[in-house]
Write a structure and sequence with these properties.
127 residues, High-Potential Iron-Sulfur Protein, Chain A, 2 domains, two-stranded antiparallel ribbon, binds iron/sulfur cluster
């Protein structure tokens, strides 16, 4: 009789333990899903941040050597006689933004954004 009772107790424990394992498994799966969703959100925002690179600083050494200005009309024309009115980043061949974009990346200043209305002495009219 005692052995039979112990048998049923063991069986009950076993099925309870099994249920715990299933619950833990489900909890871990949900946690993993939440982590994956959070990771995807972080990766998405990192992608956006990368797409919106920092704006080029006019005081940057390369910017200064090329006479870059955010506003083409402010170019030092005594130093950069090559500049002609109407030239700006938005119509330069190295500008990667759309002509109407206020800021866009430039092949000369990798990883930085230049102003569509800007200019530097590397300017080449877009064909
Ligand atoms: S290379 Fe062209 S797009 Fe780049 S900063 Fe100079 S003028 Fe602007």
């Amino acid at each position: 009789m005692m052995a039979l009772r112990q048998f049923y107790l063991n069986r009950a424990e076993t099925s309870e333990m099994k249920q715990n394992r299933i619950n833990i498994g489900r909890r871990d799966f949900l946690k993993a899903g939440a982590l994956a969703a959070a990771s995807a959100a972080i990766a998405g925002s990192a992608g956006k941040a990368a797409a919106q690179a920092a704006r080029l600083d006019e005081k940057d050494a390369q910017a200064q050597s090329l006479g870059y200005k955010h506003d083409a009309t402010k170019v030092d024309q005594a130093k950069f006689a090559k500049y002609q009115a109407g030239q700006n980043c938005a119509n330069c061949t190295f500008y990667q933004g759309k002509p109407t974009d206020a800021w866009g990346s430039c092949q000369i200043f990798a990883g930085k954004q230049v102003a569509g209305k800007g200019w530097c002495s590397a300017y080449v009219k877009k064909a």
